Amino acid sequence: MTKRPYVVDEMISAKSIAARIEALAQEIDREFADTDKLVVVGLLRGSFVFIADLVRELHLPVEVDFLEASSYGDGMESSREVRILKDLRSGIEGRDVLVVEDIIDTGFTMSHVLHMLRGREPRKLKVIALLDKPTRREVEIKADWTGFEIPDEFVVGYGIDFAQRNRNLPYIGKVRFTD
Ligand code: IMP
Ligand code: MG
Predict the structure, then answer these.
(1) Catalytic entry in 102, 105, 132, 161
(2) Does residue 7 fall inside a structural domain?
(3) Bond before 45 cis per omega within 30 degrees
(4) Is residue 1 part of a domain?
C-alpha cells in the first residue's frame, strides 16, 4: 500500500500557516494570561512542527511535554482504539494545560486523551488543533482553537505523515495517487 505512487498537491502554504499561528498565539496568550507556567502538551508525532512554531509565538512562560497515543499505523484509516504509548513526564494536577494536536479527524484520539487528562484534575484544559476535518467526526469533540478546517482529504506535511513520509514538507498538501 505504501508503495502506491502518489504526489502531494499544496493545500495550505507555509506562509498561511505562519500567519494563522501568529493570530492563534495571541488568543492563547490572552486566555492564559494569569498562568504561572502553561504546560503545552504535544501529541506525538504529528504535532512536533506545529508545537515548535506555536510556542515560539507565545509570550507566556511555558513548559513543553509530550504524549504519544497510538495512531493509524501505516494506513489511512483510524483504528478507533486509542492506546497511550508514552505518557507525560509532568503531573498536571491544578495546572493550566494546552493540548496541541495536528488533526482532529474522527475525534477518537482527542476524546480519549482529554478524558484521561481530565481525570488528573488540571485547573484548565484547552485544545488547539492545526487542522480539523469536521465532516469525518464520529465522536463529538471540538478544539478550542483550530488553525484550518479542511475537507475530507488525506493530508501530509508540516509534521503530518503518510506511512511515516512527508513530515518534513514545510506546507500542508493533499495526497493524490497517480496510478
Ligand atoms: P482521529 O482519532 O480519527 O481524530 O485521528 C486523529 C489522528 O489521525 C491525527 O492525530 C493524525 O495523526 C491522524 N490523521 C488524521 N487525518 C490524517 C491525515 O489526513 N493525514 C495524516 N494523518 C491523519
Ligand atoms: Mg496524531
Answers:
(1) 105
(2) no
(3) yes
(4) no
Best substitution site from 6, 11, 45, 71 to test ligand 1's pocket, by max atoms within 8 Å of Cβ? 71
> What's the grid cell of residue 119?
481525570
Residue 70: its pLDDT value, please? 85
What is the Cβ-side half-sphere exposure of residue 3, based on CA atoms within 13 angstroms? Answer: 0
What is the three-class DSSP state of 23? Answer: helix
Q: Quick one: DSSP state of residue 37?
A: S
**pLDDT at position 115:** 95
Integer Cα distance of 112 and 110 in angstroms: 5
**Which amino acid appears at position 64 of this protein?**
V
CATH of the domain at 106: 3.40.50.2020
Domain count, the chain: 1
Mean pLDDT by 10 residues, the chain (179 residues): 86 98 98 97 98 98 96 65 92 98 96 96 98 96 97 97 96 97
- State the pairing for strand pair 38-44/62-69: parallel
Q: What is the DSSP-derived secondary structure letter of residue 166? A: S
Instruction: Put residue 72 in one of left, alpha, beta given phi > 0 → left and psi -120 to 50 → alpha.
Output: alpha
pLDDT number for residue 73 = 57
Q: 55 lies in which domain range?
A: 13-152
105 is catalytic: yes
Taking CB atoms and a 6 Å cutoff, what residues make up the pocket around ligand 1?
46, 71-72, 78, 101-110, 154-156, 160
